[in-house]
């Protein structure tokens, strides 16, 4: 309970998609703390939304466990360079792949570039997401509804489909869902809908890909201190972020990364089709 920052936090509004470098306190992605032990030696990982937050923590952990990492992100070049710096400091290769995953061609391009650079994909982490807070349904435009589905759900489908020909038996796909997948926050209706879809897609795809030896799993984080939060939530929610969890504080990205390491590792050979919570004490269904 006391290892990491607790609310209240200072209000710190930012435009979407948010700049991790401007956050106070600075999110802990394990830059100076995560210790690897060779659990992903020689694997190739493609991680979306890996410039910042949970994706960066996963990239750093994967690199320290021995994986080369392709980092997809929207346009936060400074945050992405920082992720690359830590991956390379771990002695692994990092490929930076900016681009809007709402566009089909960019979904195909990140897979193509990863395969051109590394030859295959062992671990695919679909983690990029968009959300916006709204008090009423009328506030949500058709464009925003479709954009939320495109980035959070359709991009995941397209990237999985493009990556599969380059994945062998023993590979894994890990999709970032949310506690919103079955306990929707009313102010995040479009986003929560996509997070339910991600969990459901994961469960179906796991059964479909079992005979090919590819595992598919989703992770359901609770409140985690990342740019997504300060760039999309009202100030009063940012100030008290994570307070309502039994641990009384938000999680830091570094506290989410270890489950991705386990799920990507060969030790998880019988783990597929399910959803794992990282929630600070709140049960998930
Ligand atoms: P984050 O802002 O650090 O990461 C999200 C990333 O998605 C961004 O860095 C951005 O580069 C990328 N992205 C957004 N729109 C994109 C687009 N159009 N094209 C390409 N990339 C795009 O925030 P985070 O909280 O670490 O988010 C990672 C995942 O965790 C998301 O799927 C989010 O829904 C999930 N999650 C977060 C929380 C939380 O409390 N922070 C809780 C549950 C689930
Ligand atoms: Mg970012």
List the helices and strands and how they pair.
Elements: E1 44-48, H1 53-64, E2 68-73, H2 77-89, E3 94-98, H3 104-118, E4 123-126, H4 142-163, E5 172-176, H5 189-209, E6 215-221, H6 227-232, H7 235-239, H8 257-264, E7 275-278
Parallel strand pairs: 1-2, 1-4, 2-3, 4-5, 5-6, 6-7
Helix pairs in contact: 1-2, 1-8, 3-4, 4-5
Nicotinamide-adenine-dinucleotide binds at residues 17-18, 49, 51-55, 73-74, 76, 100-102, 127-130, 151, 176, 178, 221, 223-224, 226-229.
Domain unit count: 1
Q: What percent of the residues sit in helical stretches (DSSP H or I)? A: 25-40%
Number of alpha- plus pi-helical segments? 8
Main sheet?
7 strands, parallel
Order of helices and strands: EHEHEHEHEHEHHHE
Structure explained in plain terms:
The protein starts with 43 loop residues before the first strand and ends in a 7-residue tail after the last strand. It has a seven-stranded parallel β-sheet with strand order 3-2-1-4-5-6-7, sandwiched between helices. Helices cover 36% and strands 13% of the residues. It contains eight helices and seven strands. The protein is α/β, with parallel strands linked by helices and 285 residues long. Helix 4 (142-163) packs parallel to helix 5. The chain has one domain: Rossmann fold, CATH 3.40.50. The longest helix is centred in the middle third of the chain and has 22 residues, at 142-163. It has helices at residues 53-64, 77-89, 104-118, 142-163, 189-209, 227-232, 235-239, 257-264; strands spanning 44-48, 68-73, 94-98, 123-126, 172-176, 215-221, 275-278. The protein binds nicotinamide-adenine-dinucleotide and magnesium ion (MG). Residues 17-18, 51-52, 73, 76, 79, 227 line the site of magnesium ion (MG). The site of nicotinamide-adenine-dinucleotide has 28 residues, from helix 1 and helix 6.
